[in-house]
Amino acid sequence: MNARLSGGLIDRSKPLSFTFNGRTLQGFEGDTLASALMANGIRLVARSFKYHRPRGIFSAGSEEPNALVTLGTGARAEPNTRATMIRLPEGLVARSQNHAGPLGFDLWSVNDLAAPFFAAGFYYKTFMWPRAFWEKLYEPAIRNAAGLGRLSMQPDPDSYDKGFLHCDLLVIGGGAAGLAAALTAGRSGAEVVLADEDFRLGGRLLAESDPLDAATAADWVAKAEAELRALPNVRVMPRTTVFGVYDHGVYGAVEEVSDLPGAPLRQTLWRITAKRAVMATGATERHIPFRDNDRPGILLAGAMRAYANRWAVTPGAGKVAIFTNNDDGHRTALDLQAKGVNLLGVIDSRAGATPFGDYPIFAGGRVTGTSGRKGLRAIRLSWNGREEELSCSALGVSGGWNPNVQLASHHRGRPKWDESRLAFLSHGGPEGLLPAGAAAGEGSTAQALASGQAAARAALEQLGTPAADTPLPQGEDRQIRTEAFWHVPGKGRAWVDFQNDVTVKDIKLAHQENMRSVEHLKRWTTLGMATDQGKTSNVTALAVMAELTGRSIPETGTTIFRPPYTPVSLAVLGGGDTGKDFRPTRLTPTHHWAKAQGAVFTEVGQWMRAQYYPQPGETHWRQSADREAMAVRSAVGLCDVTTLGKVDVQGPDAAEFLNRIYCNMMGTVKVGKARYGLMLREDGFAYDDGTCARMGEEHFVVTTTTANAGLVLRNMEFARQCLWPELDVTLISTTDAWAQIAVAGPRSRELLSRVVDDFDLSTEAFPFMGCAELTVCNGCPARLFRISFSGELAYELAVPARYGHALMQRLMEKGADLGVTPYGTEALSILRIEKGHAAGAELNGQTTAQMMGLGRMVSVKKDSIGAVMSRREGLAQDGRRLVGLQAVDPQQAIPAGAHLLATGAAQTMANDQGWVTSACYSPHVGGHIALGYLEQGEARMGETLVAANPLQDQQIPVRIVPAHFVDPEGDRLRD
Amino acid sequence: MLIPHPLLGPRDAQEFTYLGDAALMQRPDPQAGEAAFADYVFQRDNPAGVHRELWYHEYGDRSWLVVTRDTTTHEILGAKLARNVKMGLPE
């Protein structure tokens, strides 16, 4: 174990145990997994993506390309998490990934020996021949070896949520700039949300040794945080990553609520609507590619400084060296020295560089190679015309800093090169997003504080809020001089993108192969892809490419970023909308009653409907459904039909409005009567049917099919508001307001007579298609409709939804001696097929009124939606008609969806004569029956055809019959 | 996306159902014949730039709105009640 350095923001009184690859290790509260691994002297933590090279921790933040680990076990195992971003909890179980065999001896590292064959684009070039080998051999083998971590392949047991936040100012990043912005806006009374991806506010301030005023930076941060948390108008959200910018000031963020296994809530997806936002996202350090620059122990210099100052750890037990092209590298050297780290010296690519303290400097030097198989042992230094090997256990590399401008690119803002800062700055970002601090190239603490405050003031001014006076502390204001130095030329492999194993050579090769645009380069080499999205590699690659082409960086191109900023799990995007919670479940008013009867339910859209009610001794659903259907035909049955859409239409122009909505005449319906109605789409096809009952001169109740309830209301509102707003009519959905129960069968009148209060049910007083408002069960308000879906004498009785359950119970009690039987959707379907009523399968959006045998319903005396187009030639000439089909062998089922063909005809589209829409076994007929559409169907009664289902090689002989298997004259209905 | 509802203020686009070209409000006269209806039913403008479109506040007050939106930037230049637009009424 490496000795901890002094100081740091870890709590030494709170030790934590965790395991890495099965080894139990110790860390402290305040550690990340990365700092704890480093404190335990573990340098090799991962294998690289392509070559399986040994890799260590490279950064101290969300830009980490190497240290991807799998956390947790079993179903909770989560691959590809960044060790640098994981707050160490007690009992954490972490494993390395992407290796065969132990991490120290990865069998797949043979790929590294074969590296010459794995250059950019090797997939496209190598696995071409023979063609059949791709699917059988190459792809499975590659898939097995490639990729990063593995999924558990089990359902995620954790809970996720989503939420909405609204604020005046969203401050993204809790470093110096973000805190200054949040304090300024918070004190001014603006609604502020401050989000930071780290578990501790402070950003880079925590990684530095400089004081703020007289206090340590950490103390000032703690004070600022306490003040912000005390302000009621400020919401402080650590561990919250703003990952994307969307339209109109909407920001997506993920909050890590708990990292403990089994916590009630793991992550929350926040949709933050902000009037203004400050992008105080800081900067990411660049590295400088040189030969074999990917060994464990080689880190970003700024990260090394962060590990020393914040976590009191150093990546190497021996000497540490710095390789830099700028002053910031020297700052790391000074801080390490102050912590007692044994400093080999600073290799500065700038010829005239001078040291900032008492340490050796190699001005104009270069690192030209390294050695150490599983961790850095020595570096090769080229300096003053000499090459020498220097023993060293860690190397910090600094190539300058890239402002984190990703969020500003999410609306196609294209970053612009700033030659004075040698960095891309945001340009053309989304409206209302103000960059500040290091993200705006203002990198010193003093600059960051000032620019954070300035951004907040600008936002407040735009919002018309006076800014409160907010004094800022004195912070360091170093000027960081940088000299462009992008890579060390030479032999061997110099990594640019660690995560995708892309080297300087690969970029050269891509260039030779004519990948001249940056976009082509990225796609050919995969540079900048995967979990880190090239945070440490994109700009360097662009600079290398510029050098190869002899162009400047701005001439070479720019780089653009898309959401998310860091990886977001699909689970949190679902936000808990999984399984049964994927959509709402709607229960009918009699649901609990039906459940108590042992009903089997089926999903119909969002609704749960009783499918059938099995009785003792029934072992197959058809036994139950046949019994229920027969009970309706012989006695009386009850079915909850609440799910049918109901629209209340009222107003002086209600009748005229409905005339235009329905293809048939509705204005002439008399008060107290209902009429069947068919709705067409404007293109002339049929789309929904139902009944339209006139409860009063200016009051209609319209029913729709269950599936189209929402759509019909939407279309009716469209007609009311967008087509004919001059009509005085109002609409409201009452689907959930009324419980509606079908009471069907020859004894339905008798049963109803036992529940209605003083209401004459005789045919004379209340004929077929009658409707009325009345009371039942001693005063319960109700609506009664004499309509039938089964072809029997039937009614539908509606009561306010809260009485639905009680009404069902009352009807069951009162009808016991009449043989009352509850029936489900299966029996409902049998009954309507027997009667030849159209339902969803007949109204599938490709059928017309004419095909349904309802052509004459389309009134020519008035205009209605779809009327004109229904008469167009193509539709008018369609000869297919709805017919009934009866299996020649009654015991042979007719498959729904089967095509109708002449007996003996080949099963080709040319021979196709129609199709079967709905089919069932009819207990009434005593055999299998069906409905279907058939060419010239009306004229072909008695003919025998074949219902063919080529998928299962079925050919069922069927006879064509009228589409009414029950009571074709309709006497029962009218009885 | 936020839609500035003329009665309810800014509302999240998730509360709305999108229909498209506001020209759908110009239903031809029933006497205009099949060709006019074919045009109305099947021909739509889909410009890159400023577009007048119909949005339905389905999970809200069920207003149909005419929203003027730049399809290239998603900037919303205005939203009016379709009813008022059709009747030529002020806001």
TrEMBL record, chain A:
Keywords: Oxidoreductase. GO terms for biological process: tetrahydrofolate metabolic process. GO terms for molecular function: sarcosine oxidase activity. Residues 591-862 form the GCVT N-terminal domain. Pfam families: Fer2_4, GCV_T, GCV_T_C, Pyr_redox_2, SO_alpha_A3. Residues 491-576 form the SoxA A3 domain. Residues 168-291 form the FAD/NAD(P)-binding domain. InterPro entries: 2Fe-2S-bd_N, BFD-like_2Fe2S-bd_dom_sf, FAD/NAD-bd_sf, FAD/NAD-binding_dom, GcvT/YgfZ/DmdA, GcvT/YgfZ_C, GcvT_C, GCVT_N. Residues 880-967 form the Aminomethyltransferase C-terminal domain. PANTHER family: AMINOMETHYLTRANSFERASE (PTHR43757), AMINOMETHYLTRANSFERASE, MITOCHONDRIAL (PTHR43757:SF2). Belongs to the GcvT family. This is Sarcosine oxidase subunit alpha. The lineage of its organism: Bacteria, Pseudomonadati, Pseudomonadota, Alphaproteobacteria, Rhodobacterales.
UniProtKB/TrEMBL annotation, chain B:
This is Sarcosine oxidase subunit delta. It comes from Pseudooceanicola antarcticus. Signal peptide: none annotated. One of its GO terms (molecular function) is sarcosine oxidase activity. GO terms for biological process: tetrahydrofolate metabolic process. InterPro entries: SoxD, SoxD_sf.
